[in-house]
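REQUEST FORM: STRUCTURE PREDICTION
Request ID: SP-0412
Submitted by: Lab K.M.
Chain count: 1
Length (residues): 335
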Amino acid sequence: MSDKKNLAVEIKDLVVEFRTDDAIVQAVNGLDLEIEKGKTLGLVGETGAGKTTTGLSILRLIPDPPGKIVSGTIKLGGEDIFAKSEKEMEKVRGNQVSMIFQDPMTSLDPVMTVEDQIAEVVELHENVNHAKAVEKAKEMLELVGIPGERGTEYPHQFSGGMKQRVVIAIALACSPALLIADEPTTALDVTIQAQVLEMMKNLKEQYNTSMLMITHDLGIVAEICDTVSIIYAGRIVEHGTLEDVFDYTRHPYTEGLFNSLPDLDHREQRLKPIKGLMPDPSNLPAGCAFCPRCDYAMEICKTQKPKRVYRNEEHYVECHLYNEENIKEGMLNRK
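STATUS: Completed
RESULT:
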């Protein structure tokens, strides 16, 4: 396991629910996650798996009501964020940890110039006047590839890719120790996506920032991440280094994600989508949440939640196929 002193963020047994009059939605269910300082972790899963909820939990921005962090711990740089007051959290957000939200169109204020939006963050966290903050804002724009003189323009005057660069500039303005990137390239076309990813990679190295990359795209993970956590129904079902997860895939869900990707070397092959849909988070199965969609499901999968099985110090999987008492039957199913 990782050296505890060298962790940017450590999440243990996180449980998050959304409570409505009709049901309790179990968004995150006992999630564990660690990111070492200066490293990037890819959190990968389908829509509704609990990725964004995990990111918002780190910032303590779960809308309450209806959302509630039921249990668990989140430590940023060794400090428990649940022990902090709301006033203290305001100092943490943007300064110690920042988030790049999924859609740049809705992340920016349409009636403020982009330089004022960056300067606002700088003024809030650094002891500088407005003129100095605007100067820093222009520097940040230059850093993300936008001419500083365009800072006096408004978001509607920028393209989608430029807006995302502005959002990244805001997130990095105070050099946070942790950057949470929530599908930052989803709204961008492929060429702009590649440019933005390359820029984020370079800026991360320049500032020695740790990053949580929330995505459903394994191509992005291969490009930018050091470690990978596969999330399903609010729980990490497989975790390891990039090489572990890509070269020694264990969980049937991870296997399904790889099978859903086109193979450029064998273009005649049809894609193999994962059958079915994500389970209803207000009515999760008693056993393994992936059981109804799994090609290798056994009887035990319907009734018992799988234990964590380690392949090596870093790489683990939560799947009955790898428990000793089931391994023979499981491998027979897998052939």
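NOTES: The mean pLDDT is 90.
Reviewed by: T.R.
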